[in-house]
Design goal:
The protein is α+β, with helices and mostly antiparallel strands. The protein has 11 helices and 19 strands. It is globular. The structure holds flavin-adenine dinucleotide (FAD).
Length: 429
Amino acid sequence: MDRSALHSRTAPFCRLTVCAVGRDSSPDVHDVVVVGAGILGLATARALLRRHPSLRLLVVDKEPLVASHQTGHNSGVLHAGLYYTPGSLKARLCRSGKSMLEEYAEQRGIPVQRCGKLVIATGSTELPALDELHRRGEANGVPDLQMLGPAGLRDVEPHATGIRALWSPSTAIVDYRTVAAAMVDDIRAAGGQIRLSTEITAVTKSSGQLLLESASETLAARNMVACAGLQADRVSQMTGSPSLETMVPFRGSYYLLSPSTRSLVRGLIYPVPDPQFPFLGIHLTRRIDGEVLAGPNAVLAYRREGYRRRDVRLEELRSVLADPGFRLLARRHWRTGLAETWRDWDKSAFTRAVRRFVPELRSRDLRHGPAGVRAQAVDPDGSLVDDFRLGSEERILHVRNAPSPAATASMAIAEHLVSKAELQFADLP
Ligand SMILES: Cc1cc2nc3c(=O)[nH]c(=O)nc-3n(C[C@H](O)[C@H](O)[C@H](O)COP(=O)(O)OP(=O)(O)OC[C@H]3O[C@@H](n4cnc5c(N)ncnc54)[C@H](O)[C@@H]3O)c2cc1C
C-alpha cells in the first residue's frame, strides 16, 4: 500500500482524536487541582509533582492560611502504630508514613523529638486491652515495645502512676504546621501553585474537563484530588458521588499545663483507649515548643469548624442530628457522649481524668488551651469508620475518612493516592 496515502487519510482523524482525548495545552486548564491545603492535600500535591515534574498543578483552600483546620489543631504526635488493626490501611500507612516524615523532617531541618509514649493501665480491668495493644503493636512492627511494671514506668515518667504500662520509645513529636509550611515551599519550588481563600462550591463535568466553581472564578481541571477533611462528604456530593458515610465533627479541647508543672511530664502519657472508639482518650502530650497539652476530650461540635462551645451553625447541627447513622451511634453510645460533654464543662472532672496518671497535677495547674475538631466519618449503620477510606470516580480521587494518625501517615497516604492517580487519571504528563 502507498504509505503516503495512508498517512494523508488518517492524519485528519488523528488530529481530531488528539483534540478530543489529548492533553489540553491551554494554560488555564490544570492537569490536577487538589482541593484542601491540609497536610494530606499538600503531601499529595508534593508527591504528584515529584513523580510528574511538568504537571500543571493547583492546590486550593477556602481559608487564608494553609493547615487551618485539623492539621493545625492536633496533638503533634508521630504515632508509632500501636493501635491499628494489623493489615489495615492505618496500620500500614502509619508505619511507613512515620519513617517517611521523620526522614523528610531531617532533610528539611524540622525538629522532631523522640520522647516516647507510655500507655498506662490504672486498674486491672484495663489489662486485657493493654495486652491487646502490645500484641497489635508487635504485629504492626512497632520497634522496641516493652511492658513495664509500676517501678519501670516511674523510671520513664517519674511523676506518673499506674499498675502496668506499655512503653513505645519510638513515638515522637513534631509541629505539623511547620511540616505543612515546608511542603508549601516544595510545591512552589516544583512549579505548583497554591491559591488560598478560594472555596470550591460546585463541580461540574464538561467535555472531558472538570469545572470547579468558587465565588470569584471557575477553575478548569482535567483531574481532581479532594482532601477536604471536615468537608469531605460535601465535596464528594458536589462531584455527584455522594458518600454513604456522614462526616461528624467531634470537638476536642485541650488544657495547657502551667510552666511550673510542665516538668511533671517528660514525654507522652496516654490512657488505655476504649476499643469501641477511634479516639485515644485524654492524654498528656509534650509539644515540640515545650508546652504540655492535656486533652483532648471528644464532644459533638455544633458546627464543622467550630472550635468554641458557643460556635453553632443550626443547619449543620440539624443535619447531623437528623442523620440516621448519627442517631444510631448516639443511641448506642449516649452514656459516653454525656460523660464527655460533662467533662467539657466541668474542669474538675477533666482534672480527675488527668490525675489518674499524674496525681500531683491540680485544677489550678491547667489553663484553657487550644481546641481541634476531628473529621470522623460515620456509616449508615451507626458505626464509626475506623480505617482510612479513599474513594474514586472517573478522574477524581476522594479522601473520605482520614482521622488520626493521618498526619503521621500523610506522606504514605500521598504515595498511595499518587499510585491510584497514575492508574486512573487522564494523561498525567
Ligand atoms: C484534636 C486532634 C488531634 C489529633 N492528633 C493527631 C496526632 O497527634 N497525630 C496524627 O497523626 N494525627 C492527629 N490528628 C489527625 C490529623 O490532624 C488529621 O488526620 C489530618 O490533619 C487530616 O489532614 P487533612 O489534610 O485531611 O485535613 P485538614 O487539615 O482538615 O485539611 C482539609 C482542608 O480542606 C479545606 N477545604 C475543605 N473544603 C473545602 C472547599 N470546599 N474548598 C476549598 N478548601 C476546602 C479546609 O479549609 C482544610 O484546610 C488529630 C486531629 C485532631 C482534630
